[in-house]
Here is the input.
Amino acid sequence: MIRFILRRVLGFIPVFLIIATLVFFLIRLAPGGPFMEGERHVPPEVLEQIRESYNLNAPLPQQYAMYMWDLVRGDLGPSMQQPSRTVSQWIVLRAPVSVELGFYSLIVALIIGLSAGIIASLRPNTLTDYIPMSIAMAGICMPTFVMGPLLVLIFALKFQWLPVSGWDAPAEKILPSITLGTVYAAYIARLARGGMFEVLAQDFIRTARAKGLSETRVVLRHALRGGLQPVISFLGPAAAGLLTGSFVVEKIFIIPGLGKQFVDAAFNRDYTMLMGAVLFYAVLILIFNLIVDVAQAWLDPRVRYD
Amino acid sequence: MTDVAPTHIEAGASLWRDAWRRLRKNHLAAISFFLLIAMVALVIVGPWVSRYSYETQDRELGAAPPSASHWFGTDDLGRDLFTRILYGGRISLMVGLCATAVSLGIGVIYGAVAGFAGGRIDSALMRIVDILYTLPFTIIVIILTVYLGKSIVLIFMAIGAVEWLTMARIVRGQVVALRHKEFVEAAYVMGLRRRRIVLRHLIPNALGPIIVYTTLTIPQVMLLEAVISFLGLGVQAPMSSWGVLIQDGAKVMEDNAWRLIFPSLFLSITLFSLNFLGDGLRDALDPRISKD
Amino acid sequence: MPLLDVKNLKTHFHTRAGIVRAVDGVSFSVAPGEMLGIVGESGSGKSVANLSLLGLVPMPPGKIESGTAQFDGVDLLHCTNAQRRTIRGKKISMVFQDPMTALNPYLRIGDQIMEPLLIHENMSKADARARAVAMLKRVGIHDAERRLREYPHRFSGGMRQRVMIAMALITHPQLLIADEPTTALDVTVQAQILELLKTMQAELGMAVILITHDLGVIAESCDRVLVMYAGRIVESATVDDLFREPKHPYTRALLASIPATQEKGAQLYTIQGAPPDLTATMEGCPFAPRCEHAQPQCKIGPIPLAEIAPGHATACKRILAGEIT
Here is the structure.
């Protein structure tokens, strides 16, 4: 198992470098850039000097080589638009908030999604199936930027049970986590239902029943592991979705996370910040995919040590 | 139940007729289908018959709640919300269709090439798809839209450019599976040319999954456009899309709740219908995983 | 007194295509310690009849329309779920056709074998483990202690079927229902598994219902046979009688179509026509459309199974009337 993890981690390195290269050229080859004339009331000579200091005037291959060299040494450079901190410092400052939001949302999604999906799978094509699944579909069709404002409208403005925005007091964290979590709860519910449905039709479930097990034991001990496989494979993409979904939620609830930092960096053409944020997201997603793979191998003996 | 396998295939009914029959029996999918047609018709015809244009302002009126003259109310510039929603719908639906078309084109060609070439080319092409999968789509689209400019055409190009990955995988899977089926081998033996095999045999057989996934891509793409617009990176004023309208509405929801609710409703209904139709098509076209 | 006494069992499936009468009025009994074979082609209802007894027919679409099944003072078709659970896996066990899919791929072999003991006999884990090891050895699996910790995918088909048998027999049931236990296996392994079933039956003194479509398997191992066709029993006899003196035309056709019994070089015998559509209501004998002896009278009225000789019953009007021999 440890060798499997090590091999996967080694495999991350080329993927990471390819992503860095792709994003680097994607950003640089586009017209425009930071510190262009006319964008600010700064004399052209000063701008020229700034560009020089960031190496923006060097030929592209040279810029690339220098960036990659710094990257390999773990240096993401200073933020071009907010030079008070380096990109790494910004990430350290902002990312924990986004990760915390993502974590709570995932918990919300799993609790709601799993229970709805499993309940629905037990009696297919009855009301206990249709009702949770219709709600799940509604959840999928109600994007975060609709759900968020609506929740605020109802719970913060109308009833005034919860604060409108912020990220300090525990009460402020409830609405954002629910907003971000419900969409994924809906997907998880659908996947859990589908997976359980499939497993419950398998021969070995009939074997388990023939052994005289109670229905609870059949579901919990024999069906759950296989039935939740689709949910577990979904957690990789879901983690990516929770991170990028946080752009919207951070904007709605005015949360000082990395998502807001990233969108601002994109607006301001803050090359270094943008690169840093994308690479940080990529690493997080790769790590999460690895965790998912390990969990899957652990749950399904047939794929173990592949 | 090894003993009972009542498979009743009506004689002469082709796959497509069978699928159509199953789809009509699925009430939710049928309702979704008509809702969608109604929505498209409304969005196309509505603005022509409306008394207002999407930029007609009535500053004296300002933001007014729904009334007889303005069914869905107005925004703070006194523009009729109903008309703006219909115009925004045109943009949203167009982005949905065009971006899906782009992703369909790239995905089908890429997947078919990979599946048909096989061997090293196939694994190299698919490895690239795997790597791209690790990048969150939204991030790439945001970078693309910021740097390529904010025109609608570029937005749907950008979205299409990142949404083709799953389509490529599906098409490749189908092609690989079908390549080794007897009828394709038979076509080879009969000396048919490659192009003919692809056109006459492979594509028609892969069509089912492609149609299903296309239907499910449209709502994803529309959602992505709405996210970008909501973040302020998408369609620019005075044009609007549902995402933009929702963002405007969210800002003023405390006093002008209707400006959040109506555009949200339109977007959600459309997404709802597309998803149910996609699900229905999947059940109809793929009898193996359908419920009966 | 029979161990199991089934009367007029009807199991129907309510599908969109109509009502499939998978089992349509079946009565039989099993004596303690005997091996009863049930033979018939796919769709004859032999599996469904037995699954019905244990409440393993998926409902819906399945529905048990009528019948009783007395076992150990309980009517299996009309007892509570709780009662049924105390019988399933304890007094009546089942072995299924495909050992590749009948074992849970996510759980260790040991945990699966021990499970019936843990839930039915309140045994400690250590005791259950010891019983499981002993049982695995008895069904011919070497190195049982180590293999107990492995997952099913590490076992071959024949080995998995041995595991299935060990799991079914670990509670020493009074009745074992083996549903095509050898069909999915290689020919050489088939013989071993049948041999194992016979040995275990002798050792534990249990009754066995052996469901198969293979008359060879019946000839080799059973005491008595039921022949099923289209959800009904068309003939019931001892194995010797059945092979020596088959009565029902369907049984005769079945015997005639065994390649080994036919002359070398002769054209293989096949039964004309196709099995009937079970969604249609059937008057008279279900085999009549394919029967070379069929007369208009064969398509009228219910044709019950009736004794033609002691211990030998058939559901053919013309045989019973002595019109054909």
